[in-house]
Specification:
4 domains; alpha+beta; 434 Repressor (Amino-terminal Domain); 19 helices; globular; DNA polymerase, domain 1; 51% helix; 3-stranded antiparallel beta sheet
């Protein structure tokens, strides 16, 4: 039989007897609940009875968790019952990586005992060197000579062939890939790999991602009534170092577009779409021909392509944010280029014949299969090096699009909508540099106007 104890204003503790332990000591389970302050006495009584009955059944079934569990135990349930069903695969995978570091530091602690000071200390440790779990690995120089069948032996590992090629050419790879290779080979990682940049510090953005994840998990713990309050809410978020978005100016863009005239049309179209539309990489590679409205000269962005080692290439039927689903106008020059590209792709299908994998995708591999989402980025890196263009990442072409729009006087709300930002304050924060330049030009124009009247 359960008991009810009043603990404070609108707060009650539920007690359920669980028999006796091996030393004949009485065992009890406790659960503290907080009710709304606007309930009548009768409503309070009814709500307590309902919650006590539910609590007793959970205890009997062994499914009840309370604040006495460790963060490790709660994280396991949170991943299974909340994260996996509700989050996109890429976000879920990212959170699992962050959790490794969180649980190493705090996982052994009881959920209801974790204090703001402990969380602050964790953030401080994250900002120091030597805490990276995602450090790079590089094959030792003697591996290929002592293991000539290395490539054949690692064939069971599901790795992008380009990644294997880069690895064999002496490039760095991730710890995750090194671990998977060594699991198949059944040898320790350090036997064939050198660790690179292990002491490199985490970025302030990554530290902040840990904060957001911990806060979200503890919010769920409050909603599940495992704890009364979220200790993370009493911790100041780690400060993110502000960095101005890197981008090409108009002269550099014109130079790049001129050089693209001598490149394969597939990549030429990709770069033009990014420059004129500012799409994210996953949005670009997910585009399909029905997304292009040639009559109204619009492009619709409603999905994204992702690659995760454990899943492969994934079609995600939503964009990064809800506001990322958008339809925007594109210039006639881009429409004409897309028509030219469509004719080229149709001709490729004919030449490939039955070996072509049929789909509506704009961008594919040579046989029509889905393109790897990072392929445009890899090609662009080689392109700018080959042509001695200023160093820029593929994602920074998106910054270029936004900077050019703002520089031409486009209002922030429109820029934000075209980029698919969830809030225009994000646009304001990222593109401060362009706004400052635009503000300077506005001041000069006003100064010129008033000086003429004097």
């Amino acid at each position: 039989m359960g008991q009810i104890e009043k603990r404070g204003l609108n707060t009650y503790r539920l007690v359920v007897e669980c028999g006796f332990d091996n030393q004949k000591k009485r065992k009890r389970k406790y659960k503290t609940i907080k009710l709304q302050s606007n309930l009548t006495d009768k409503q309070i009584e009814n709500e307590i009875i309902v919650q006590l009955d539910r609590f007793e059944k959970e205890v009997q079934k062994g499914t009840y968790l309370d604040g006495n569990i460790t963060l490790n135990e709660f994280a396991e349930k949170w991943l299974k019952d909340y994260a996996e069903p509700n989050l996109k695969p890429k976000t879920f995978t990212h959170y699992k990586k962050l959790l490794k570091r969180i649980l190493l530091a705090l996982g052994h602690k009881k959920l209801d005992s974790i204090q703001p000071t402990q969380i602050m200390e964790f953030y401080k440790n994250l900002s120091e060197g030597g805490v990276r779990l995602d450090y790079s690995c590089k094959l030792k120089e003697n591996v290929l000579s002592t293991m000539p069948d290395f490539e054949k032996r690692i064939s069971p590992v599901k790795i992008n062939p380009r990644t294997i090629k880069q690895l064999l050419n002496g490039n760095n790879t991730t710890k995750e890939i090194a671990d998977r290779i060594c699991t198949v080979l059944k040898i320790p990682v350090l036997k064939i790999f050198d660790i690179v940049d292990r002491n490199k510090k985490l970025s302030s953005t990554t530290v902040n991602h840990h904060h957001r994840l911990i806060r979200s998990m503890f919010n769920t713990a409050v909603q599940w009534q495992l704890i009364l309050s979220n200790p993370v809410e009493r911790v100041k978020p780690p400060r993110i170092e502000k960095k101005e978005a890197k981008y090409y100016d108009i002269a550099e863009v014109n130079q790049m577009l001129a050089l693209l005239e001598n490149e394969p049309i597939k990549y030429k179209v990709m770069i033009h779409i990014i420059i004129f539309c500012g799409l994210r990489l996953g949005e670009l590679t997910a585009l399909e021909w029905p997304d292009i409205d040639f009559d109204n000269e619009t492009i619709t962005i409603s999905k994204q392509l992702q690659y995760l080692p454990e899943y492969g290439i994934l079609d995600i039927d939503t964009t990064k944010t809800e506001s990322g689903n958008r339809t925007i106008y594109i210039p006639s020059t881009l429409i004409n280029l897309l028509l030219e590209y469509k004719r080229w792709q149709d001709n490729e299908k004919i030449k490939t014949g039955d070996k072509w994998v049929v789909s509506d995708k704009l961008f594919t591999q040579n046989n029509g299969k889905k393109i790897f989402p990072n392929s445009p980025s890899q090609w662009f890196n080689k392109f700018i090096k080959r042509n001695n263009l200023p160093s820029l990442t593929f994602h920074q072409l998106r910054h270029t699009n936004a900077s050019l729009l703002i520089g031409q006087g486009t209002d922030i709300a429109t820029v934000s909508k075209r980029l698919g930002h969830s809030d225009k304050t994000i646009t304001l924060r990222i593109y401060t540099h362009a706004l400052k330049q635009h503000d300077r030009e506005a001041a000069d124009k006003l100064g010129n106007l008033l000086s003429k009247k004097n």
